[in-house]
């Protein structure tokens, strides 16, 4: 691949960078969207759930299967104002593999609704989480996970979108990749969250001087194990002093230049969205966007 090809891919990826509205807490959806547009983002990730919060405040979202006419109109207006749209399906208190049939069926219904309504809003991909079944080993219900995601993949394919499973569970890199590959559905892939492998390092490793290198190896292994099944990215940083993720990009231990070099070589065609949790939300998002563009261009060089 020539330098010119790589540069073109890099600029195309920079143009697909967006933000999850959780990066701008304590703001109504319309205000968060306006700020994102003013900052120059071409992509937005909408939350298909409401009334939750993270450490910095309340998150703007709505349950897609319970939209009022006014909420639906607002979502359509916001989505139409961005070139790239993605959706984060409900995950807090979602238990799609619960032994309790009522909880299981309601959880799956909400995930299907997120895919179907998200597609109608113009989203290209919908992020989900596999949540563990308490007191069970993953191997005991792994086949059930595969069967459900093939069903969800069929729904997504019918709607013209993809569904992704975000880094986090199964915890192991090889186990996670094996699940994605064994689902073996063209509309189901992985969402690599760059900070969600933290638990694979021991507390001692996290506090060590080798932490950045150790984590970089884990992250590259994650990318290599998934290959062409990487459909989406969630970006942020990991703070050195306490190993907290969802920090301002470029402020922590992560050097993503090698990761983006590999993604560009793979001709990665998905989106890349920031998920930040910072008190100075607008400033952190601004700086993160500028730093990410520099990293991607350096990776292309």
In words, what does this structure look like?
This protein has 301 residues and is α/β, with parallel strands linked by helices. It has a single domain (3-300), classed as TIM Barrel, CATH 3.20.20.150. Helix content is 46%, strand content 14%. It has helices at 3-15, 29-38, 69-80, 101-120, 138-159, 173-183, 203-207, 211-226, 257-265, 281-300; strands at residues 17-20, 43-47, 53-54, 57-58, 84-88, 125-128, 162-166, 188-193, 230-235, 271-274. Helix 4 packs parallel to helix 5 (138-159) and helix 5 (138-159) crosses helix 6. The radius of gyration is 18 Å and the shape is globular. The mean pLDDT is 97.
Low-confidence segments, given as residue ranges, are none
Q: Which geometry do the CA atoms define?
A: globular
Rg result: 18 Å
What is the tally of beta strands? 10
Helix content: 40-55%
Structural class: alpha/beta
CATH topology: TIM Barrel
Strand content: 5-15%
Q: What's the SSE pattern?
A: HEHEEEHEHEHEHEHHEHEH
Number of domains: 1
């Amino acid at each position: 691949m020539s330098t010119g090809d790589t540069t073109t891919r890099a600029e195309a990826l920079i143009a697909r960078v967006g933000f999850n509205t959780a990066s701008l807490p304590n703001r109504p959806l319309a205000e968060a969207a306006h700020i994102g547009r003013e900052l120059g983002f071409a992509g937005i990730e909408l939350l298909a759930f409401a009334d939750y919060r993270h450490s910095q405040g309340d998150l703007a979202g709505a349950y897609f299967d319970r939209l009022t006419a006014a909420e639906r109109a607002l979502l359509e207006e916001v989505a139409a104002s961005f070139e790239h749209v993605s959706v984060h399906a409900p995950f807090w208190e979602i238990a799609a593999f619960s032994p309790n049939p009522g909880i299981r069926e309601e959880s799956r219904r909400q995930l299907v609704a997120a895919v179907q309504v998200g597609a109608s809003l113009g989203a290209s991909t919908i992020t989900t989480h596999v949540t563990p079944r308490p007191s069970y080993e993953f191997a005991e219900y792994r086949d059930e996970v595969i069967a459900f995601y093939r069903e969800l993949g069929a729904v997504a394919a019918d709607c013209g979108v993809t569904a992704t499973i975000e880094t986090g569970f199964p915890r192991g890199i090889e186990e996670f990749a094996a699940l994605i590959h064994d689902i073996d559905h063209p509309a189901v892939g992985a969402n690599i969250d760059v900070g969600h492998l933290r638990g694979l390092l021991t507390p001692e490793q996290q506090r060590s001087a080798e932490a950045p290198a150790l984590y970089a190896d884990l992250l590259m292994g994650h990318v290599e194990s998934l290959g062409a099944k990487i459909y989406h990215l969630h970006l942020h940083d990991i703070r050195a002093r306490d190993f907290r993720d969802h920090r301002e990009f470029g402020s922590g231990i992560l050097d993503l230049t090698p990761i983006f070099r590999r993604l560009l070589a793979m001709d990665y065609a998905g989106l890349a969205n920031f998920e930040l949790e910072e008190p100075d939300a607008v400033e952190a998002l601004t700086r993160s966007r500028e730093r990410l563009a520099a990293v991607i261009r350096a990776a292309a060089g």
